[in-house]
Amino acid sequence: MQRKTKSCPPKDGFFDDLSAQVVMTEDGFSTLKGPWGETYHSISGAVLESQYIYVDNGLGYFIHLNILEGTLPSRIHILEMGLGTGLNALLTYRQMIRGTFPAADGIFYEGVELFPPEEKILEPLHYTASDKEEDFFRKMHRGPWNEPFCPAPGFTMLKRKENFVNYVPEKEIHLIYYDPFSPAVQPELWSADILGKITPTLVRNAVFTTYCCRRSVKNNLKDAGFLTERLPGPGKKRHILRAVYGVQSLRITGVINSSIMK
Predict the structure, then answer these.
(1) Quick one: which of 29, 106, 110, 204 is 20 to 30 A from 90 by CA?
(2) How far apart are CA 186 and CA 171, in angstroms?
(3) Would residue 37 count as lying in a domain?
(4) Count of domains in the chain?
(5) Digit-coded pLDDT (tens) for 104-133
(6) Range of the domain at 233
């Protein structure tokens, strides 16, 4: 998660009291509580939320759509706004190694995070399900900032330690996981200016997915050239938002299941 705002700067030493910041969610996995009382992942289920919103209905949808269109790239460039705990990246890697991944050259994963949690803060979260995932998770968080590295074969990562307000996209982007804290505490990250700045490097059929379904966010995405779709949310969450760039109509609608990527 991206945690700095103009009105609410993070407090130094916020994570010093580790026990106070780890929160159990309803799917049995933990998350962290951020500096304004918001958690990094849904209380209804940390892994449930990330898998459903970003992997199934982000990555899965992008792959399904672009296979139908004949436009699937050999390597999928994912931009995550709010790298946070790295859970979305881990679940993306898990999906990549489940079977025959349709993008032959794998994934280029770019994550933007101004205040990354220290490794000792992440240890109690226990998101990994295998030795291979544990190795990936450790290498991901220990890898260098602001230069590409490979935490696993077929998965190149670029962690940018900067404020997304100042981020300038440089490479062609296929998929956006938008996962900062909510507009209530980070309104500038949901503004038309910020959402519009990423469009110059988006390909047609690029997919944007997020947990936030506010009308203002939908309108800002529409103004930036996206076609939006409100989907039912995971667990107790009512709705999520997905958008496709540069199209006049949606060829595929509705919820996508990760089984289509097997």
Answers:
(1) 204
(2) 25
(3) yes
(4) 1
(5) 999 999 999 998 988 888 888 999 999 999
(6) 18-261
